[in-house]
Amino acid sequence: AQDSCAYQCGNLLATCSCQATCQSLRNCCSDYKDYCLQISPHSGSLMGGKDFLIENATFNTSSVIKCSFKQGIETNGYVDQDGRAHCISPLLYETGFIPFTVSADGGKTFPYSGTWLSVHHGKVAEGEICTLENQTKWQYYGTPNNDGNLTLTWKHQAFTAPKVNIEVWGYQETGDSYSENWSAEWKYLYTLAKEIPNSGSFSFLPVPAEEKYSTWDFGMLRITPSSYSGGQSNVPSIWSSEHALAWHLGQDFRKDPSAWATTKCTEWQKKEEKLPNFMEEIIDCPCTLAQARADTGRFHTDYGCDIEKGSVCTYHPGAVHCVRAIQASPQYAAGQQCCYDHTGTQILTNDSTGGSTPDRGHDWGSPPFLKPPRIPGFSHWLYDVISFYYCCLWSDNCQVYMTKRSSSDCRTYRPPRAASAFGDPHFLTFDGLNFTFKGQGEYTLIESDLTSLRVQGRTQQVHFPNGTGAQVTGLAAVAMQENNSDVIEVRYSEDSSLQVLLNQRVLNFSEQSWLDLKGLFLYSPAAQNITVMFSSGSGVEIRGIGGFLTVTVLLPEKFMNHTQGLFGVMNDNIQDDYTFRNKTTMSVHASPQQVFEFGANWVVENGTSLFTYDTESLLNNFYYGEKHNASFLPVFVPHEDPADPLVEGMVLLCDSDPFCRFDVLTTRSLEVGNSTKRSHQNHKLLVENLKPVISCGWLGQPTNGTKNGTNYLLGSTISFTCDQGYALTGAKERTCQETGTWSGDTTTC
């Protein structure tokens, strides 16, 4: 008798497999699809209420479905007319892949299992949330010139129910800040409208809420079928975006919004003074826009101000682009933001209201989530956004906010180092050595004892239609892990599309381009682009270009003297980049044959391989076969024949780029040469953009005087003048010097 996958999904059993790889290896247990669930949709907001279908298993219409998420959060499911089961996603205080199990006997046994992707509320698709028409009006309601009806719209197809209820929910955090008893809660407040037609639109004239509710100033609306009672948890629902609840605040707010908000702003300021200073532990900002956009392992575009989307920077006037630090700070889970003007210079709050403001709560939350200050989106709203409404938007006390959230400059920022591999594999190390290694097999690109970071590359033979049959190899797969993080592999699949595997399971980016995973974030904005951001700040970028993978690894400075592999020892010394496993080194002027031996020395062993072997050919060629194919001998130096008709085109295309020339000759393709040239140029540009920049730090204006200039980088000059009737002592002009200090004496008036 064959084993069963009931309770066993993800495991390899004695007679068959319940692992995700079993389908391509054709060794699944016969009931694999019945118990290991595929669901659609597979993701939704962490607020819950999303109805999802279990695709592959069928149930009796009499089955009583219960769905249990993570540690026993149970929701009621149902079986539709077609005998297919549905679950409702629950309210979760975390993002990422959430395991769930399903019961068909009312909760006695839970033999079925799957995973649900819980997503930051700001990252869900537009149709999934109900829309506050003219959202500004909702959030400023009751302030001058903001009155009249408000309108809410939603996709009425989301519910089959003819009538719906609209509820008001509030968010709060109780207990002592940064202590064990600090906890987060979404709370049902009251029903705004009962049993209204499910028409997709509702308009109303807001009235101030009852006194017991009017203290709730941050929350959401929830629409549910009217058959459910008010505030019933984990039922089918559509949530609005999170927003400032100005429209429901009490009479005291409406009478004098500015005075009410000023009081709130002052209360916030007093509370902030009692809290620990999170500013000391957040990463400093990159000095220039070029650095900020190049340091992709540690900083990511802030969607509220994006140069690629036309620089609509509502909260940061004068900025063209902002980035956020990807990782929350270690102890306080705080976030960093950095904004830049059209010259590429950082904008500081000390100089302008458009400056970047760091966050006590990182907007994306941070593992292990579940408790403040790590709740995705909402902790940030409570500490950093609603307070911005109090001080800056509803009253004129923005200087109070900016004092508590002033921009960090870039004096302690150190750019990361980059190494790349591309084409018919060419390698550029962290220290700048470049070489070609055309082995066929699986090799260590980099490993580090600092964080157990491992990045491995697989090269495979590539055949080109008009190629000479010359042995051409290219990167076909890259796998990586840091400490005990999830394992990510990016590879070309049989049909030449890029596949991303998470712990051996193929990922689907149809619903989400950003994933919060264990020990890393994963971002795939386009089919051929993948960025992995590990919690150490190291980043791996992979691009599919012209049939080869291009891989770039970015490492922060703390990895100095902690790397080995094909990308060399990162230590600013090119001489030891050919370091073997046994720590012996070889001259940088080694012959191509010696370089081939160096490369072969970094072959991966089966025991430490991160790759997924889920097809017969991968098993035979790389798992059971040799990891480094010793019988495969490449062309070390391709022959350049002046009579070759290809040479003329090659010279025009490649100019003096040796890698481009090499690849045109081995693949007989100008297109491949062009891809290689592009990858090489991208790497050079990246290295250029990551050059360290000296900053002398912010200089203020003297009391009773003014200053001219807001650039504090090497070579820039700030000049000072005094108000009428005041005399200037100290320097009239101060220049930022190589030492990172300002010239001249402090200016006073």
Automatic annotation (TrEMBL):
Residue ranges constituting the Sushi domain according to the UniProt record: 694-749
Official protein name in the record: SUSD2 protein
Cysteine pairings via disulfide bonds: C722-C749
Pfam family, one: Sushi
Domain AMOP: 257-405
Primary location group: membrane
Gene it is expressed from: Susd2
Domain VWFD: 417-610
PROSITE patterns the UniProt entry points to: AMOP, SMB_1, SMB_2, SUSHI, VWFD
